[in-house]
Give the backbone structure.
Amino acid sequence: MRAAARAQPNIALIKYWGKRDTDRNLPAVGSISITLADLHTDMQVAEDETLDVDAFELNGQQNAAMLPRVSRCLDSVAGRTRPRLRVTSLCNFPVAAGLASSASAFAALVIATNAALGCGHSDAALANLAGGASGSAARSLLGGYVELANRDAMVAVNTLLAAEEWPLQVVVAITTPGPKPVSSGDAMEISRKTSPFYNRWIEQQPVDLNEARDAIANRNFIKLASVAEHNCLKMHSVMWGSRPPIVYWNSATLACMQTIRELQSQGVAVFFTIDAGPQVKAVCMPDATAKVQQALAATPGVTDIMLSGLGPGATLVPLE
Ligand code: PMV
């Protein structure tokens, strides 16, 4: 009645923004992401008869704020009549700061819970359970280049290319370590209800998905760079056009984009993407990594740099 799993966050190149069903947390659009190798969340789930309610500990501290969301996810995997569970999470990167910590957390949580309680869910069911907790978490079940597609009342994830088939690198420029002001779930609903660009965003997504799928299949960096930057800026335009506006960027976010533009003008193979937070993720060819890292580290307002290759999907790991 105990199991542990590890999952890595993923970075969307073609973004998920908007829900078609808020109760079931179903995305309004498909998306394509890359799963990272070097950032990870470990989740241990253990039955504990002494508990009256579930317990959730993150990096050695009880975390009451996230407990309801964790318990809801446990209910969805193991049913409401399940035993009380003690969930222990260790995360080696900043949480809730636009680095997809919820993706790795909930991917690891569904895998560990399924194993701990012997629920016997299929991989397809686990993707929907992870997605129910955090839309992007379904993608962290798989490694490398991952597409999430809408299938009727379900989502389905599949691998477009394994990490080692096109081993790009990601340099993350941290501009503010703190948690984000508005959760992505709330922000998506504000966009859906108020942004005049929202419907056009949804309509155009298949075009960007096709272009990115093709770029990945042909390992065409320039083409992937172009569509990924376009899709990212379009998603943020939807947010900026919302009322109230949703602006996750700060001046260092813009400075990092400028740094990346300068590198591109020197012929360096790099592009940026930005999620629901102020951090900038620079995706580059392996031989450009040192240059990109140096340039971003020297950009005003950057407080930290993290590096990662592309990695595998979520897996069970031995218990500590
Ligand atoms: O999975 P959520 O609810 O945290 O939403 C993720 C939204 C973005 O990171 C901005 C885009 C994406 O596809 O990951």
Summary: The pocket of PMV is lined by residues 12, 15-17, 31, 102-103, 134-136, 184-185, 275-276 (CB under 6 Å). Residues 198-217 form the longest helix (20 residues).
